[in-house]
Amino acid sequence: MCSAAGALAALGCGAGSESPASGASASATATTVTATSGPAPPCTPRTAEKLGLPFVRVCPPGEPGFWIGATPMACSGGDHDAMRCPTVTAIGHPVSTSPLPIRPTTAQLIDAETAARVCFYRMGGHVASRAERVKARHGLGLATVLVTESDSAAQRFRFAELPEWVSEEPGERCENQEPMKTCHFGWYPAESRSPGVPWANMRACQAVFHAVPPADLPLVALGSGCAAPTWSWAEAPGSERPLPCGLHTPAGHAPGTRGDAAFALACRAPALHPHPVGEDKNTAAYRCVLPASALGAYDLPGR
Length: 303
Fold this sequence. Notes:
Elements: H1 4-10, H2 23-28, E1 47-50, E2 53-58, E3 66-69, E4 87-91, E5 105-106, H3 112-122, E6 126-127, H4 130-140, E7 143-149, E8 157-161, E9 164-167, H5 179-182, E10 185-188, E11 204-210, E12 219-220, E13 225-226, E14 241-248, E15 262-268, E16 288-290, E17 299-300
Parallel strand pairs: 12-14
Antiparallel strand pairs: 1-2, 1-17, 2-3, 3-16, 4-5, 4-7, 6-16, 7-8, 8-13, 9-10, 11-15, 14-15
């Protein structure tokens, strides 16, 4: 399970969250929050947790806001034999003035129907809709980044975005026992494809958000690569080492920044977990969305 303190402090958490539950018993464990009377307070981005999982509130202008997983649903220790669980960095803009580094985590790659059922039965919500996922990207820069290393000096490190399931209909239509009858699911970003996981080349990377990046840090876009002709792991054996380039925020111009906000990365080779033989192309990561009022009583400080 993700620790609330570390995960919520950085919009990310270490590998290992609870595995999905199913059926009515899982629904019964969901936290229930009773709405209070009076006018709703203005929506402000903040973090909270439910069942040990980190969520962040997205506040589009003029809308009540919604809670979305701060990270994609992660794998527990026992999940690696049954599903693919690549190591990823779930980047996102912090919502406090003193955030901690975003630690690497894992992402469950499963089929859309299972993802929808997990969000409904376990979390009392739904898989993010495409509209919600776009708002989370523009508002907080949420993205699931798969960092890999190659032998090419010109493209030593690559920053691919792991696709996530989204519903094409409003998410509330998918909150039922048979989501495939009421919703159609696709990948986000739309042009992405479920990749074969490069297990041997994955790198576990932490990220630090900079509203104004260091002037000497070259910046690259998500989906591109980083040249590092003289870079060597030998200079920091067994520990994280800063990469020679940073990653532009996928949100574009971030509020309160010059427009060049970015993430500095420090990486190490992750431990290789056992995983199912073969690659299932009809799988993706996913994030759950909760109702706007679901976590109002569970706001936590310190992001």
